[in-house]
Amino acid sequence: MVVIGRAASLATQLKSQLAPEGVDVVWHRQASGLLREPSADAVVLDGADLMDATAAVRRATAASLLIVGADELVAAACLAIGADAWLPSGSGPALVCAQLRALIRKRTTGRSDSRVEIGRLRLDVSARRVEVEGCELQVTPREFDLLRVLIENAGVALSRDRILAGAWGARFVGEPKTVDVHVAWLRPKLEGSGIRVTTLRGVGYRLDVLDDRRPIVFAPQDPQEVIPIKRP
Q1: Would you call 54 exposed, middle or buried from its count of C-beta atoms within 10 A (0-12, 13-18, 19+)?
Q2: pTM reported for the whole predicted model
């Protein structure tokens, strides 16, 4: 876990709380420190310049991101561009730890599924295959990773930086506008799939389900066990 902020006090408090659980807490003054922490499960941003720091974190990693700050309007903007949760300044370490555990638990649960059905499309992560009603779609590796991130966050507004980090990782060399190019290539291939990539001006993209006749289904590794999940 990485804590980024001007002071190391929060990192010290979290370390004492999480050490018994075997969680390693590292402090960096700036988001650039994430380049030395490629396997971080979660990031905490504490203090000022949250907007710029959120964008920097999302360019570096897709790890769960919790921001801690006083301004609700700034927090709302950070959530729109990629932060996962917000707590007000002065929140105690016990509450911060509880929020972090919830974020990591949610992310781990989502990653446990290998196959996903949404609309008329089936995505098989382990086989890296995309099908629409049994017919395989020909997508490039980057288009597959882009689609995977959008499907994992169906109905959620995602910034370009967050998509970049989630799909292609911190080592990807390119600009956020690269996402626009791959979305443009992917959209025609999704015709008839019952899903759509919606452009959100000033924010990024959101995956919408157009065909509500079928629920989103997460299928575990055992092909006999299928778990339907009702759409909100």
Answers
A1: buried
A2: 0.59
